[in-house]
Amino acid sequence: MGNNFNANLNGENTSRKVKVTDFTFLYIVGKGGFGRVWKGELKNTRQIYAIKEMMKSRIINKKSVHSVLNERKLLSIIKHPFIVNMEYAWQDTNNLYLAMDYVSGGDLRYHLMRTEKFTEAQTKFFVACIVTGLEYIHLHGIIHRDIKPENLVLDSKGYIRITDFGIAKIISPGLEKESSGTPGYMAPEVMCKKMHGPGVDFFALGVIAYEFMMGYRPYWGRNRRELKDMVLSHQAQIKRKDIPEGWSLEAADFINKLLQRKPEERLGFNGPQEVKNHQWLRDCNWKDLFSKKLPAPFKPRKKEDNFDRWAQIDWNDDVDSKTFNSSLQDLFEGFAFDPRKVAVCEEITQQISPLR
Protein backbone atom coordinates (compact mmCIF):
# COMPACT_ATOMS: atom_id res chain seq x y z
CA MET A 1 0.00 0.00 0.00
CA GLY A 2 2.77 2.42 0.93
CA ASN A 3 4.59 1.81 -2.37
CA ASN A 4 1.48 2.64 -4.38
CA PHE A 5 1.06 5.82 -2.36
CA ASN A 6 4.54 7.12 -3.06
CA ALA A 7 4.63 5.95 -6.67
CA ASN A 8 1.59 8.04 -7.53
CA LEU A 9 2.70 11.20 -5.72
CA ASN A 10 4.07 12.86 -8.86
CA GLY A 11 2.16 10.88 -11.44
CA GLU A 12 0.24 12.87 -14.04
CA ASN A 13 -2.63 11.77 -16.24
CA THR A 14 -2.99 14.42 -18.91
CA SER A 15 -5.53 12.65 -21.10
CA ARG A 16 -8.23 15.14 -20.13
CA LYS A 17 -7.99 18.74 -18.97
CA VAL A 18 -10.62 21.21 -17.80
CA LYS A 19 -10.52 24.98 -18.17
CA VAL A 20 -12.23 28.03 -16.71
CA THR A 21 -14.90 28.11 -19.40
CA ASP A 22 -16.02 24.59 -18.43
CA PHE A 23 -17.41 26.06 -15.19
CA THR A 24 -20.00 28.62 -14.22
CA PHE A 25 -18.72 30.71 -11.30
CA LEU A 26 -21.85 31.40 -9.25
CA TYR A 27 -20.73 33.50 -6.28
CA ILE A 28 -17.94 33.87 -3.72
CA VAL A 29 -18.17 31.87 -0.49
CA GLY A 30 -14.71 32.40 0.99
CA LYS A 31 -11.40 34.21 0.90
CA GLY A 32 -7.89 32.82 1.18
CA GLY A 33 -4.36 34.14 1.30
CA PHE A 34 -3.96 33.89 -2.48
CA GLY A 35 -7.44 34.70 -3.75
CA ARG A 36 -11.03 33.59 -3.44
CA VAL A 37 -13.25 30.54 -3.12
CA TRP A 38 -16.25 30.31 -5.42
CA LYS A 39 -19.32 28.19 -5.53
CA GLY A 40 -19.18 26.88 -9.08
CA GLU A 41 -20.89 24.46 -11.41
CA LEU A 42 -19.34 22.17 -14.02
CA LYS A 43 -21.46 22.97 -17.04
CA ASN A 44 -21.70 19.54 -18.68
CA THR A 45 -22.67 17.66 -15.49
CA ARG A 46 -24.31 20.44 -13.39
CA GLN A 47 -22.18 19.20 -10.48
CA ILE A 48 -21.48 21.85 -7.81
CA TYR A 49 -17.91 22.44 -6.55
CA ALA A 50 -16.01 24.81 -4.30
CA ILE A 51 -13.44 26.39 -6.60
CA LYS A 52 -10.28 27.90 -5.12
CA GLU A 53 -8.99 30.66 -7.38
CA MET A 54 -5.38 31.52 -6.50
CA MET A 55 -3.38 34.34 -8.07
CA LYS A 56 0.05 33.24 -9.26
CA SER A 57 1.49 36.69 -8.56
CA ARG A 58 0.42 36.50 -4.90
CA ILE A 59 1.73 32.96 -4.55
CA ILE A 60 5.14 34.03 -5.81
CA ASN A 61 5.21 37.26 -3.79
CA LYS A 62 4.48 35.27 -0.62
CA LYS A 63 7.13 32.67 -1.57
CA SER A 64 4.49 29.96 -1.40
CA VAL A 65 4.94 28.14 -4.71
CA HIS A 66 6.17 24.99 -2.97
CA SER A 67 3.29 25.06 -0.47
CA VAL A 68 0.63 25.37 -3.18
CA LEU A 69 2.14 22.65 -5.36
CA ASN A 70 2.57 20.43 -2.29
CA GLU A 71 -1.14 20.72 -1.46
CA ARG A 72 -2.06 19.90 -5.05
CA LYS A 73 0.14 16.77 -5.01
CA LEU A 74 -1.19 15.52 -1.69
CA LEU A 75 -4.81 16.07 -2.70
CA SER A 76 -4.24 14.11 -5.90
CA ILE A 77 -3.43 10.93 -4.00
CA ILE A 78 -5.95 11.02 -1.14
CA LYS A 79 -9.70 10.59 -1.26
CA HIS A 80 -11.90 9.99 1.76
CA PRO A 81 -15.44 10.83 2.93
CA PHE A 82 -14.10 12.81 5.90
CA ILE A 83 -11.82 15.01 3.79
CA VAL A 84 -12.68 17.81 1.37
CA ASN A 85 -11.41 16.10 -1.76
CA MET A 86 -10.01 17.64 -4.93
CA GLU A 87 -11.76 16.71 -8.17
CA TYR A 88 -10.05 18.94 -10.73
CA ALA A 89 -7.04 21.24 -10.95
CA TRP A 90 -6.08 23.57 -13.80
CA GLN A 91 -4.50 26.93 -14.53
CA ASP A 92 -4.61 29.86 -16.89
CA THR A 93 -2.17 32.70 -17.47
CA ASN A 94 -2.77 34.45 -14.15
CA ASN A 95 -4.41 31.95 -11.79
CA LEU A 96 -4.43 28.42 -10.40
CA TYR A 97 -7.73 26.65 -9.74
CA LEU A 98 -8.74 23.74 -7.52
CA ALA A 99 -12.25 22.31 -7.81
CA MET A 100 -13.06 20.71 -4.46
CA ASP A 101 -16.03 18.95 -2.91
CA TYR A 102 -18.65 21.58 -2.13
CA VAL A 103 -19.55 21.39 1.57
CA SER A 104 -22.37 23.77 2.46
CA GLY A 105 -22.46 23.57 6.27
CA GLY A 106 -19.81 26.17 7.08
CA ASP A 107 -16.73 25.67 9.24
CA LEU A 108 -16.65 25.04 12.97
CA ARG A 109 -15.30 28.52 13.73
CA TYR A 110 -18.37 29.99 12.04
CA HIS A 111 -20.68 27.92 14.25
CA LEU A 112 -18.61 28.28 17.43
CA MET A 113 -18.82 32.07 17.15
CA ARG A 114 -22.60 31.72 17.26
CA THR A 115 -22.92 29.08 19.98
CA GLU A 116 -19.82 29.96 22.12
CA LYS A 117 -19.63 26.34 23.26
CA PHE A 118 -20.74 22.94 22.05
CA THR A 119 -22.28 20.21 24.20
CA GLU A 120 -20.37 17.07 25.13
CA ALA A 121 -22.43 14.97 22.70
CA GLN A 122 -21.76 17.40 19.86
CA THR A 123 -18.05 17.61 20.66
CA LYS A 124 -17.75 13.84 20.90
CA PHE A 125 -19.31 13.43 17.46
CA PHE A 126 -17.05 16.10 15.97
CA VAL A 127 -13.98 14.49 17.53
CA ALA A 128 -14.92 11.06 16.17
CA CYS A 129 -15.27 12.53 12.67
CA ILE A 130 -11.90 14.28 12.92
CA VAL A 131 -10.18 11.14 14.24
CA THR A 132 -11.62 9.19 11.31
CA GLY A 133 -10.12 11.63 8.83
CA LEU A 134 -6.80 11.83 10.67
CA GLU A 135 -6.51 8.05 10.82
CA TYR A 136 -6.73 7.90 7.04
CA ILE A 137 -4.07 10.53 6.34
CA HIS A 138 -1.76 9.31 9.12
CA LEU A 139 -1.85 5.75 7.79
CA HIS A 140 -0.60 7.22 4.54
CA GLY A 141 2.28 9.01 6.20
CA ILE A 142 0.74 12.49 6.03
CA ILE A 143 0.40 14.97 8.88
CA HIS A 144 -1.95 17.92 8.43
CA ARG A 145 -0.22 20.35 10.82
CA ASP A 146 -3.02 22.94 10.77
CA ILE A 147 -6.01 21.27 12.41
CA LYS A 148 -8.22 24.07 13.75
CA PRO A 149 -11.94 24.99 13.65
CA GLU A 150 -11.50 27.03 10.46
CA ASN A 151 -10.24 23.93 8.62
CA LEU A 152 -13.07 21.66 9.77
CA VAL A 153 -16.23 22.04 7.71
CA LEU A 154 -19.69 20.57 8.14
CA ASP A 155 -21.65 18.82 5.43
CA SER A 156 -25.43 19.10 5.28
CA LYS A 157 -25.84 16.05 7.56
CA GLY A 158 -23.62 17.50 10.29
CA TYR A 159 -20.51 15.40 9.58
CA ILE A 160 -17.04 16.98 9.68
CA ARG A 161 -14.62 17.07 6.78
CA ILE A 162 -10.97 18.15 7.04
CA THR A 163 -9.79 20.78 4.57
CA ASP A 164 -6.77 22.97 3.73
CA PHE A 165 -3.68 20.82 3.24
CA GLY A 166 -1.49 23.81 2.44
CA ILE A 167 1.15 23.01 5.08
CA ALA A 168 0.55 19.27 5.32
CA LYS A 169 3.62 17.10 4.92
CA ILE A 170 4.66 13.54 4.32
CA ILE A 171 6.61 12.49 7.41
CA SER A 172 10.30 12.61 6.50
CA PRO A 173 13.67 13.91 7.76
CA GLY A 174 13.84 17.68 7.75
CA LEU A 175 10.59 18.43 9.55
CA GLU A 176 12.61 19.57 12.54
CA LYS A 177 13.55 22.65 10.53
CA GLU A 178 9.95 23.82 10.23
CA SER A 179 7.57 25.54 12.62
CA SER A 180 4.48 25.84 10.42
CA GLY A 181 1.00 26.00 11.88
CA THR A 182 -1.43 28.30 13.65
CA PRO A 183 -0.41 29.71 17.06
CA GLY A 184 -2.77 28.43 19.72
CA TYR A 185 -3.11 25.02 18.06
CA MET A 186 0.58 24.33 17.41
CA ALA A 187 2.22 21.49 19.35
CA PRO A 188 5.31 22.30 21.48
CA GLU A 189 7.60 20.15 19.31
CA VAL A 190 6.67 22.25 16.28
CA MET A 191 7.18 25.52 18.15
CA CYS A 192 10.65 24.35 19.15
CA LYS A 193 11.50 23.13 15.62
CA LYS A 194 11.92 19.53 16.67
CA MET A 195 11.18 16.46 14.58
CA HIS A 196 7.42 15.89 14.68
CA GLY A 197 4.83 13.43 13.51
CA PRO A 198 1.12 12.58 13.79
CA GLY A 199 1.08 13.69 17.43
CA VAL A 200 0.92 17.34 16.34
CA ASP A 201 -2.55 16.76 14.88
CA PHE A 202 -3.74 15.06 18.07
CA PHE A 203 -2.43 17.96 20.17
CA ALA A 204 -4.44 20.35 17.99
CA LEU A 205 -7.47 18.09 18.42
CA GLY A 206 -7.04 18.42 22.18
CA VAL A 207 -6.98 22.21 21.91
CA ILE A 208 -10.18 22.15 19.85
CA ALA A 209 -11.99 19.81 22.26
CA TYR A 210 -10.86 22.01 25.19
CA GLU A 211 -12.16 25.08 23.39
CA PHE A 212 -15.51 23.42 22.73
CA MET A 213 -15.83 22.41 26.39
CA MET A 214 -14.57 25.55 28.10
CA GLY A 215 -15.36 28.25 25.55
CA TYR A 216 -11.71 29.36 25.24
CA ARG A 217 -8.35 27.84 24.30
CA PRO A 218 -5.96 26.41 26.92
CA TYR A 219 -3.09 28.71 25.89
CA TRP A 220 -3.08 32.36 24.93
CA GLY A 221 -0.69 35.23 24.39
CA ARG A 222 -0.46 38.65 22.76
CA ASN A 223 2.02 37.32 20.23
CA ARG A 224 3.70 34.09 19.14
CA ARG A 225 6.53 34.51 21.64
CA GLU A 226 4.21 34.91 24.65
CA LEU A 227 2.15 31.94 23.50
CA LYS A 228 5.25 29.77 23.14
CA ASP A 229 6.48 30.76 26.61
CA MET A 230 3.13 29.82 28.12
CA VAL A 231 3.01 26.44 26.39
CA LEU A 232 6.55 25.57 27.45
CA SER A 233 6.08 26.70 31.05
CA HIS A 234 2.59 25.43 31.79
CA GLN A 235 0.87 22.09 31.30
CA ALA A 236 -2.78 22.77 30.48
CA GLN A 237 -5.15 20.54 32.42
CA ILE A 238 -8.87 20.44 33.06
CA LYS A 239 -9.33 19.81 36.77
CA ARG A 240 -12.36 18.06 38.21
CA LYS A 241 -13.67 21.27 39.76
CA ASP A 242 -13.48 23.05 36.39
CA ILE A 243 -15.50 20.54 34.38
CA PRO A 244 -18.64 22.32 33.12
CA GLU A 245 -22.06 20.98 33.99
CA GLY A 246 -23.16 18.29 31.56
CA TRP A 247 -19.62 17.09 30.83
CA SER A 248 -18.04 13.85 32.01
CA LEU A 249 -14.76 13.02 33.73
CA GLU A 250 -13.94 10.80 30.75
CA ALA A 251 -14.16 13.78 28.38
CA ALA A 252 -11.79 15.81 30.56
CA ASP A 253 -9.36 12.90 30.78
CA PHE A 254 -9.42 12.49 26.99
CA ILE A 255 -8.63 16.17 26.45
CA ASN A 256 -5.92 16.25 29.12
CA LYS A 257 -4.15 13.28 27.54
CA LEU A 258 -4.22 14.89 24.10
CA LEU A 259 -2.71 18.10 25.50
CA GLN A 260 0.40 16.45 26.95
CA ARG A 261 3.39 18.55 25.97
CA LYS A 262 5.74 15.59 25.50
CA PRO A 263 4.77 13.70 22.32
CA GLU A 264 5.63 10.31 23.81
CA GLU A 265 3.18 10.93 26.68
CA ARG A 266 0.40 12.17 24.41
CA LEU A 267 -2.67 10.10 23.55
CA GLY A 268 -2.20 8.90 19.97
CA PHE A 269 1.58 8.52 20.18
CA ASN A 270 1.12 4.79 19.52
CA GLY A 271 -1.30 5.34 16.66
CA PRO A 272 -4.90 6.40 16.04
CA GLN A 273 -6.31 3.19 17.52
CA GLU A 274 -5.04 4.37 20.91
CA VAL A 275 -7.25 7.45 20.57
CA LYS A 276 -10.26 5.42 19.46
CA ASN A 277 -9.81 3.02 22.39
CA HIS A 278 -9.98 5.74 25.03
CA GLN A 279 -12.91 5.22 27.38
CA TRP A 280 -14.62 8.38 26.13
CA LEU A 281 -14.83 7.05 22.56
CA ARG A 282 -15.27 3.33 23.22
CA ASP A 283 -19.01 3.40 22.61
CA CYS A 284 -18.62 4.99 19.18
CA ASN A 285 -19.93 2.87 16.30
CA TRP A 286 -17.05 3.56 13.93
CA LYS A 287 -18.50 1.52 11.09
CA ASP A 288 -21.81 3.41 11.08
CA LEU A 289 -19.96 6.70 11.54
CA PHE A 290 -17.84 5.97 8.46
CA SER A 291 -20.99 5.14 6.48
CA LYS A 292 -22.61 8.33 7.83
CA LYS A 293 -25.58 6.41 9.21
CA LEU A 294 -25.47 7.97 12.67
CA PRO A 295 -27.69 11.00 13.40
CA ALA A 296 -25.50 14.04 14.01
CA PRO A 297 -26.23 15.92 17.27
CA PHE A 298 -25.49 19.25 15.58
CA LYS A 299 -26.64 20.16 12.09
CA PRO A 300 -26.09 23.37 10.13
CA ARG A 301 -29.06 25.54 9.34
CA LYS A 302 -31.24 24.33 6.51
CA LYS A 303 -30.28 27.01 4.07
CA GLU A 304 -28.21 26.76 0.95
CA ASP A 305 -24.99 28.04 2.52
CA ASN A 306 -23.55 28.86 5.92
CA PHE A 307 -20.98 31.39 4.76
CA ASP A 308 -22.57 34.76 5.50
CA ARG A 309 -19.54 35.85 7.53
CA TRP A 310 -18.06 36.76 4.13
CA ALA A 311 -20.98 38.97 3.10
CA GLN A 312 -19.49 42.29 4.24
CA ILE A 313 -16.10 41.87 2.52
CA ASP A 314 -15.37 44.16 -0.43
CA TRP A 315 -14.25 41.61 -2.98
CA ASN A 316 -13.13 44.29 -5.42
CA ASP A 317 -10.09 44.77 -3.18
CA ASP A 318 -9.12 41.19 -3.90
CA VAL A 319 -8.79 41.53 -7.66
CA ASP A 320 -5.28 41.77 -9.09
CA SER A 321 -5.45 43.45 -12.50
CA LYS A 322 -1.78 42.95 -13.31
CA THR A 323 -0.88 40.39 -15.94
CA PHE A 324 1.22 37.57 -14.56
CA ASN A 325 4.81 37.44 -15.79
CA SER A 326 4.77 34.66 -18.38
CA SER A 327 8.48 33.94 -17.89
CA LEU A 328 7.62 32.38 -14.53
CA GLN A 329 4.93 30.01 -15.81
CA ASP A 330 7.28 27.02 -15.59
CA LEU A 331 7.06 27.24 -11.79
CA PHE A 332 3.53 25.81 -12.03
CA GLU A 333 4.14 23.12 -14.62
CA GLY A 334 2.09 19.95 -14.07
CA PHE A 335 -0.58 21.58 -11.91
CA ALA A 336 -3.48 20.11 -13.92
CA PHE A 337 -5.27 17.09 -12.46
CA ASP A 338 -7.37 14.43 -14.18
CA PRO A 339 -10.11 12.94 -11.97
CA ARG A 340 -9.67 9.43 -13.41
CA LYS A 341 -6.56 9.05 -11.29
CA VAL A 342 -8.86 9.16 -8.25
CA ALA A 343 -9.73 5.50 -8.91
CA VAL A 344 -6.33 4.56 -7.47
CA CYS A 345 -7.06 6.56 -4.31
CA GLU A 346 -10.50 5.01 -3.88
CA GLU A 347 -8.98 1.54 -4.04
CA ILE A 348 -6.53 2.46 -1.27
CA THR A 349 -9.36 3.92 0.83
CA GLN A 350 -11.32 0.68 0.64
CA GLN A 351 -8.32 -1.27 1.94
CA ILE A 352 -8.48 0.50 5.32
CA SER A 353 -12.21 1.26 5.61
CA PRO A 354 -14.71 1.03 7.10
CA LEU A 355 -12.84 1.71 10.30
CA ARG A 356 -13.22 -0.64 13.19
Rg on CA atoms, Å: 20 Å
Query: For the report, how would you describe the main beta sheet?
Result: 5 strands, antiparallel
Number of helices: 12
Give me the CATH fold name of the largest domain.
Answer: Transferase(Phosphotransferase), domain 1
- CATH homology-level superfamily of the largest domain: Transferase(Phosphotransferase) domain 1
Whole-number count of domains: 2
| pLDDT < 50 stretches | 1-15, 309-321, 341-356
User: Which structural class do you get from the secondary structure elements?
Assistant: alpha+beta
Which range does the strand content fall in? 5-15%
Shape, please?
globular
In short:
The protein is an alpha+beta fold and 356 residues long. 31% of the residues lie in helices and 14% in strands.
Provide structural commentary.
It is a single chain. This protein has 2 domains: 9-103 and 305-334, Phosphorylase Kinase, domain 1, CATH 3.30.200.20; 108-290, Transferase(Phosphotransferase), domain 1. The strands form 3 sheets. The protein has a 5-stranded antiparallel beta sheet with strand order 1-2-3-5-4. Strands 6-9 form a two-stranded antiparallel ribbon. The chain has a two-stranded antiparallel sheet with strand order 7-8. A hairpin with a 4-residue loop joins strand 2 and strand 3. It has helices spanning 2-7, 56-61, 65-75, 108-115, 120-139, 188-191, 199-214, 224-233, 249-258, 272-276, 286-290, 342-352, and strands at residues 23-31, 35-42, 47-55, 86-91, 95-101, 142-143, 152-154, 160-162, 169-170. It is an alpha+beta fold and 356 residues long. Helix 7 (199-214) runs antiparallel to helix 9 (249-258).
